[in-house]
Amino acid sequence: MPLAIALTLLWTHGTAPRVTSKRVYFFGSGQVEGNAQESALLGGKGANLAEMTKLGLPVPPGFTIATSVCREFEAGGERLPDKLSHEIELYLSRLEKFLSLEFGSTERPLLLSVRSGPPISMPGVMDTILNIGLNDISVEGLAEQFGDRRFAYDTYLRLIAMYGESLIRGNNGGDSWSLFDDALAARKREVNVERDSDLNDEHLAELVQIYKEIIITETGRPFPQDPREQLLQAVSAVFRSWNSPRAVAYRRLNNITASVGTAAIVQVMVFGNLGDTSGTGVAFSRDPNTGESSFFGEYLINVQGQDVVSGIRTPMPINGPGEDTLKGRIPAVYAQLHTICQTLERHYQDMQDIEFTVQRGELFLLQTRTGKRTAEAAVCIAVDMVHEGLIDKRLAVVRVTPEHIDQLLYPMLDLQAHYSVLARGLPASPGVATGVIVLDPAEAESLGKQGNKVILVRSETSPEDVASMYVTEGVLTSRGGMTSHAALVARGIGRPCVVGCADMVVDRKADTVRIGDQILHLGDTITIDGSTGDIILGEVATVQAPVTRKLDELMQWADEYRRLRVRANAETPADATTALKFGAEGIGLCRTEHMFFGPERIALMRQMILADTDIGRRGALGLLAEMQREDFRELFASMAGLPVTIRLLDPPLKEFLPNSHEEVLQVAEALGQKLEIVQGKVDRLWEHHPMLGLSGCRLGVKYPEIYETQVQAIFEAAVIVKRSGLQVHPEIMVPLVMTTAELAWARAIIDRVATKVFQRSQVAVGYLVGAAIEVPRAALVADTLARHADFFSFGVHELTQLTLGISSDAAASFLPTYVEDGLLSREPFQMIDEAGVGRLIRLAIKHGRSGRLDIKLGMCGEHGGDPFSVAFSHRAGLDYVSCSPFRVPVARLAAAHAALQEQD
Amino acid sequence: MPLAIALTLLWTHGTAPRVTSKRVYFFGSGQVEGNAQESALLGGKGANLAEMTKLGLPVPPGFTIATSVCREFEAGGERLPDKLSHEIELYLSRLEKFLSLEFGSTERPLLLSVRSGPPISMPGVMDTILNIGLNDISVEGLAEQFGDRRFAYDTYLRLIAMYGESLIRGNNGGDSWSLFDDALAARKREVNVERDSDLNDEHLAELVQIYKEIIITETGRPFPQDPREQLLQAVSAVFRSWNSPRAVAYRRLNNITASVGTAAIVQVMVFGNLGDTSGTGVAFSRDPNTGESSFFGEYLINVQGQDVVSGIRTPMPINGPGEDTLKGRIPAVYAQLHTICQTLERHYQDMQDIEFTVQRGELFLLQTRTGKRTAEAAVCIAVDMVHEGLIDKRLAVVRVTPEHIDQLLYPMLDLQAHYSVLARGLPASPGVATGVIVLDPAEAESLGKQGNKVILVRSETSPEDVASMYVTEGVLTSRGGMTSHAALVARGIGRPCVVGCADMVVDRKADTVRIGDQILHLGDTITIDGSTGDIILGEVATVQAPVTRKLDELMQWADEYRRLRVRANAETPADATTALKFGAEGIGLCRTEHMFFGPERIALMRQMILADTDIGRRGALGLLAEMQREDFRELFASMAGLPVTIRLLDPPLKEFLPNSHEEVLQVAEALGQKLEIVQGKVDRLWEHHPMLGLSGCRLGVKYPEIYETQVQAIFEAAVIVKRSGLQVHPEIMVPLVMTTAELAWARAIIDRVATKVFQRSQVAVGYLVGAAIEVPRAALVADTLARHADFFSFGVHELTQLTLGISSDAAASFLPTYVEDGLLSREPFQMIDEAGVGRLIRLAIKHGRSGRLDIKLGMCGEHGGDPFSVAFSHRAGLDYVSCSPFRVPVARLAAAHAALQEQD
Predict the structure, then answer these.
(1) Looking at this predicted complex, what is its ipTM?
(2) Most buried residue among A537, A577, A583, B818 by CB atoms closer than 10 A?
(3) Which residues on B lie below 8 Å from A784 (Cβ)?
(4) Which residues, including other chains, have CB under 8 Å from residue B182's CB and lie 6 or more apart?
(5) Angle, to 10 degrees, between the axis of helix B549-561 and the axis of helix B375-387?
(6) What residues 292-321 of chain B have any CB closer than 8 A to a CB of chain A?
(7) Is B804–A777 a contact, with Cβ atoms under 8 angstroms apart?
(8) d(C-alpha A104, C-alpha B454), whole Å
(9) Catalytic residue among B404, B485, B874, B897
């Protein structure tokens, strides 16, 4: 069952609430209504309070108003349902009897807290009001009850401030905490003291009046003296805060649906502000930073809960060296807390984050929840708990998210370091990089090769910048989105990258970069954080999460559960080695065009394209062929025994055309043709919509020599490698297939060249031929296409562009708004558009299998490293995904999650 | 049955041949093997010869070697099947007995012709060899037999020349007729005569030797003296000519599949070259030019068949005034021929084209076939034959093709006029236009408005040229394909247009147009023929086929059969009036962006787009709204009672952005903003792939004011028109829908604005809201989309671009090769790609109907006027197509054909 819960939380962010007419659920003294399985109804906090109560732990009694009431509140135009106050009344009297206190009593007033309890924790986002039940009269009763008038006024003051704050924020959306703070500070100046604790009870009583005046001034209504009105107002405030801008923003960022609503928890107050044997704190059953199995926590003496969270005072550790620890000060409470933590961890089978209060030496638990943790801790805890016999391997695998893996593989900014962020762009490729600003790619390449640390800063990058990107520390662009050229290449080669920094202006003429008001020059050092998008002046220290033995262990478990194979996109032996290190099971995409962008090679490509005759073309191609053969030989050798999918030349012709006058001149000279004639050809080959023009196998049809040469290089390399005693499994992918006849045409060339090479060398190599499904038409004719294909490789990026009619360039200009406004459920260039593109892929799979039952099916490109898209690939029945080497572990884990989810 | 044949010929261009092992089929003297229904087996000519023989008409006997033998010949590496010569031998002896002649005899030689007989007529394309059976000895026997030595040598000479020509062409593909012609001319010079007929028998006998030497020289082999070798060689030559470059080209142009093969017809010779009571000619049962019901034909005295066809001598009419007519010279033969023509027309129920030979006063029929006819004649004959009770209305409708209709609606070059073609481009919009060359659109507009006849000549056109296109005679561009901007607009407004003339260079600097070597200047007069793509210097006379009463009658019959409705694409009342005249049943596409391209309006659009605030935008939009309301009012009024589909603003933002510095300055001044700021905005809005960017309803989402304004203008106009007592049926189309949420969003705006307008005016108008299905994703989510749509309108042009991943700009650069090489079966921007785009549309229809059973389905854009795409629309179950006004009759007829084909 815990596995199911964990999965539910991971994948659906909240289950459907139980339908019931009951609104209020009691907990206290071992009796509970509802249980921890009902977090959808009771909220996470409410459910866990009930559970702890059942376990006999010291929880102040109270009752939970169910999440369904929040929905009633919304539906009723922000009014509580009529019957609610009656139900609350019944539960109040139950509490009163239980504690022998009276709500609203002037002598022994029962004080209550009202907290929010959403099904998914939203820490610090929603309203909390403590000390409800106090008024000008009962405050004196409280003073008498505890024999501490200062405490009573401190408590009353907190009630008024929290109430006021909540009301004012609800009224005008503003943050008014400072009004009360300012008044407090003014009072301290008047009486000439420094610390809050130096104010005596009279000072505080005067502040009560001042606070009450602030409320009248700001809201036009007095602070209610009637405790029942306070209570209902506080419940309303909690429900209202569910739709506060803060809460809406938080939910959007964390993919939590708004429809669930929050519970409101009404609980008897316990006081951490009752002197030196009182206090409040948080404890973790294990270290949330490292995952080490050591009891960990912080506390403050003589405060109420808010003070710990707000960070006004620096808390102290609960254990460790020194005397100020909880262990040192109140050892009995410490021991009790330690035991409870262990109990709870065993009960919940996960690391717990516990809020506690000590009231005059007596321990109370106010909350327990699954503790948030760093990526490192997540892996460590999951693996340790398996070894401790606490959880099984499946659950361990589920507990670590793909995002955790992502974080673990890159260095991170040291959070202890001091730095200020100049601007923020889109976090396009994770990791931190520091280097000097260089604007010119050639200069960047040259400096980089000399061992300098360089950040390439550009408006946007083009394929000719790739060579320089390999030798720079990171890339920063002012334009482009998460799938811009810079982003794609950087992720592919594992370089930190920040793109689309709209506040930045790159001025090539002046050789400056303007960020906001700041002008940076060539050679200035900057740091970029590709995980957050931050751009920072100067160098910042980083920390590297060690890729531990525990991670390897976890990934092995993940591999036991997944069905989907994971390959890597790689062009170089270096990429291939990285891919293997990260567990790739082959290469799913080798983009041969990346092999053509070196200066020498691109010059030959240009000659080839602009040559007048087949012979002219073959001359240039002959030279390219030798280089390619060597490329492929290295790649096959480093992936020995594993499949290597090679995509024949794919990009739009335009990417190989000379741009500048010099480049045209160079080609003209090489070809011995007139400049004007070559320029004329370039102009004619220029296309309005390169993406919708002469690219992919259309290039191959126009210049069959290109494909013939490439295929020959592939097979010659394969033969060499096979002769050396290694296994080689080439899979040749025909790009941008549109019609069945195209694939049949390409296949005929491939088979013919293969036969020729094998006959000549007397060595035969098994190979596959397949189609890249990037054009919607290919998916639509998958049945006939499959008769000529050994495999399909879905190019989801291209397929998304064409199926949605959006170029990835254009995407940045309006897709974010679309996602925000709900016109699209998610960014389709990051996570597959399941309803549209996904449907097309499923159609192609169905038809493809009808054409050839055993056709091999894969997905290549950036989506292959996105957990959501990996899960889709599993469900749709693909055989493998292929992604950047650095994302292979992410894909492996996501594939395991998908398989486990299916089993459940 | 004739209907079925006609349809078969129209739609499939040849039926599957019967499987049989019989190779040779006899006809003669009332006995036949096989019949006219077996044209797939016997070829058209062979089947009709058999049929005429059965009817007891005077057909020289012979036998047909079936088309299957042609396929055997091909499969066997251009060798006749072994058993064939044996079978031929059997039939030869049958002929010999029948005629008391002997093949190869030196005294009474049986002479034979061998003609090709493909299932579909390919006139003049394939080989024919006459007079087979003659050699150096039997030529004297023939002389004796007919008592005419000159005739015998003339006949022999023709055999050698035809045999030699066929062999030489088969050997080296060259055209060698001139070798024999040159020899003949040389001989005439030597003996000092002018005409062939002045050469006597001795001259001809000498020429026989010369011709034979030519054959040895050219082929290395002598002319065979063995008649049987002659016969088999001739049969081989006919089969070989099936795959001659000429024949392959002809079939490609006429969509005839190569697999059918040709029959070879071996027939006893009759001689038209036996003196003044002999001759040969062609006759038509009705006038093939006008369709008039008058006997029509031409003949030559004392010639063999070739001379009539080759046009060396000018033939004489068979009837009419003057004495040289057949009627005047050999009245009995004329009368017999006339009767036979009427018999054959009645038998075949169609106008017949008959070849005849008169041998010494005796009439022989060599061929009958359905006569080719002009568009005018096609309509006239079809309608007349119905009135004559010869055929029914269904058959009449089928007999007229959509291409006929197309021709009838445009003026054509007078074929009698003398002119020479400078160059040829793509025939983008039919009709002929003459005018002076103008390169600048503004100048063209101004000159055109002053009443000058102008041809706008451009590299390519852009939306801002549209205003000038309205006032020019025609448009000529050097770039772009059949679906380029120029082509689309020209077809839409019915202007002749030739595009993609690669031989033409437009030099704006020099104000010249270079076509080949010729430099043309501004003001030079040219003529363009948008039906052929011809570009001609100077003015050429044109003829206008009258759109007759008969056409109206035929179209009414067509309307009785069709199920598919036909609407027109129209923006102006003038367009609407044309559309109604041509029988449109509403407007299926009013592209509102066309209403924004006037100079005043585009300035306002630019202000709107570049304004900083909603208010700024609404200011410019307010002015535009008034103009739009008036536009819509006029459109609704002229289409009263019929549906009018209005597409909300659709084109890429880029089309509205200012281009030049002056335009940016103008906008900046109007907005009171700094130039740099406006320029910066323009730069930011610029897109790499405008077609895949911010256009269609994405613009609406970004600037909701645009749609609100347009919708308000639509409903206000509708209210005005309804108040005036007219019926109005607006259907609002949301362009480029990608997600269901987009359509729901747009529908909410439309419904809200409608309610507001109706409440204010106290008049309500029924309206529909639908989605343009242009993005593949929309088709894929048609089920959910349909829940928010009253109709779908398939924008096949856009859908083709995205489904195939080809921009229509790029199409010209490689699609023609694709179609030629069979990588695509047809040009998808002209005829719908049924396998790909068609499948997507069928999917959307199925899913759409599952979402909303009664959803209305239409197709809009250029494909709506293409007969193939109309037929698809019918079969797929669409409710209507919408096309240019000028193509409405074409679509109506094509829809009727589709319906009739379905019934069969």
Answers:
(1) 0.79
(2) B818
(3) 835
(4) none
(5) 70
(6) none
(7) yes
(8) 95
(9) B485
pLDDT single digits (tens) A102-120: 998 888 899 999 999 888 8
Among all chains, which residue has been given the structure tokens 């739709």? A243
Q: Which of A253, A305, A239 is nearest to A78 (CA)?
A: A239
Beta carbons within 10 angstroms of residue A834's beta carbon: 19
Q: Does B801 touch chain A (CB under 8 A)?
A: yes
Q: Is A484 on the interface with B (CB under 8 A)?
A: no
Spatial distance between the Cα atoms of B146 and A419, rounded to a whole number of angstroms: 117
| A881 close to B (CB below 8 A) | no
B859 closest CA partner among B697, B715, B733: B733
Joined tokens for residue B729:
């049926």
The tens digit of pLDDT for each residue in A624-676 reads: 888 899 999 999 999 999 999 999 998 877 777 887 888 888 888 887 888 88
Angle at A715 between CA A709 and CA A721, to 5 degrees: 135
Substitution target from B698, B702, B747, B826 for chain A, most A beta carbons within 10 A: B698
3-state secondary structure labels for all residues of A260-272: HCCEEEEEECCCC
The least confident of A442-446, A756-760, B77-81, B170-174 is B170-174
Check: CB of residue A479 under 8 Å from CB of residue A459: yes
Rounded to 5 degrees, what are φ and ψ at A171? Answer: -70, -55
Tell me the whole-structure pTM to 2 decimals: 0.80
| Tens digit of each residue's pLDDT (9 = 90 or more) over A559-608 | 999 999 999 999 888 889 989 999 999 999 999 887 777 777 888 888 88
Q: Residues of A with CB below 8 A from B459's CB?
A: none
d(C-alpha A805, C-alpha A538), whole Å: 42
Tell me the C-alpha distance between A504 and A512, whole Å: 10
Q: Is position B797 annotated as part of the catalytic site?
A: no
| Average pLDDT of the residues in A769-780 | 98
Cβ atoms of residues B498 and B460 within 8 Å: no
Residue in chain B lying closest to A698 (CA):
B814
Helix B82-99 × helix B227-241 angle, to 10° = 120
Pairwise CA distance, residues A886 & B4, whole Å: 65
Q: Spell out, as residue ranges, where chain B has pLDDT lower than 50.
A: 1-19, 311
Burial class, B154, CB count within 10 angstroms (exposed 0-12 / middle 13-18 / buried 19+): buried
**Out of A736, A741, A807, closest to residue B692 by CB:** A807
In terms of DSSP H, where are the helices of A703-838?
704-723, 740-761, 776-780, 782-786, 796-804, 808-820
| Residue from B798, B821, B812, B828 nearest A700 by CA | B821
d(C-alpha A895, C-alpha A13), whole Å: 19
Judge contact between B528 and B453, C-beta under 8 A.
no
Chain A CB within 8 Å of residue B462 CB: no
- Nearest chain B CA: its distance from A878 CA (Å): 20
B-chain CB neighbours of A803 within 8 Å are: 775-777, 780, 802
B650 contacts chain A (CB < 8 A): no
Report how far residue A546's alpha carbon sits from residue A541's, in angstroms, rounded to the nearest whole number: 16
Annotate A52-64 with b (16+ C-beta within 10 A) or e (fewer).
Answer: bbbbebebbbbbb
Is the CA virtual torsion A93, A99, A105, A110 positive or negative?
negative
**Interface residue B653 vs chain A (CB under 8 A):** no
Nearest chain A residue to B810 by CA distance is A693
Q: Which residue in the set B689, B806, B814 is minimally distant from A807, CB to CB?
A: B689
Contacts with A806 from chain B: Cβ below 8 Å: 692-693, 738
Which residues, numbered 671 to 690 in chain A, qualify as contacts with chain B under a Cβ-Cβ cut-off of 8 Å?
687-689
Least CB–CB distance from A689: residue in B742, B781, B809: B809
